[in-house]
Design brief:
Its EC number is 3.1.1.29. The protein is of the alpha+beta class. The protein has one domain: Double Stranded RNA Binding Domain. Helices cover 38% and strands 17% of the residues. The mean pLDDT is 81.
Length: 139
């Protein structure tokens, strides 16, 4: 089990990794060694995530989410498999941590009496400016 937050732990078996060839730096190794990592995590099928966190994670994932509800993260920043693997996992865990934060509900507020008065005064000023323009003949 991998601890993501104080309340969320993900089973290692839920993460599916595959290694593909990466572009970019690598010298002669670049065409021979598969160093890029594709990390897949099935959000819909995960038993580790609470339902509300899973829904927020799918919203956060955006284009990284497939139609089947699987988050796909590709990491190819580094030259070694191990560092790309750590990078991909850390990016997934950051997304899960962000999804674990409950948004604070909006509290309805009413405008204050002073703000209502300011609004009415501004409307009156604007009205007077426009009414003063009415009487002028065009040149």
């Amino acid at each position: 089990m991998i601890r993501v937050t104080d309340h969320i732990e993900i089973d290692e078996a839920e993460l599916e990794e595959s290694f593909v060839r990466a572009g970019g730096p690598g010298g002669q190794n670049v065409n021979k060694v598969a160093t890029a990592v594709q990390l897949r995590f099935d959000v819909r099928g995960s038993r580790s995530l609470p339902n509300d966190v899973a829904i927020r994670l799918m919203r956060i994932a955006g284009s990284r989410l497939t139609n089947d509800g699987v988050v796909v993260i590709t990491a190819q920043r580094f030259r070694t498999q191990e560092r790309n693997r750590e990078d991909a996992r850390e990016r997934l865990f950051e997304m899960i941590r962000a999804a674990a934060v409950r948004p604070t509900p909006r509290v309805k507020t009413r405008p204050t009496l002073a703000s209502k008065k300011r609004r009415v005064e501004a409307k009156k000023r604007r009205s007077t400016v426009k009414s003063l323009r009415q009487g002028r003949p065009e040149e």
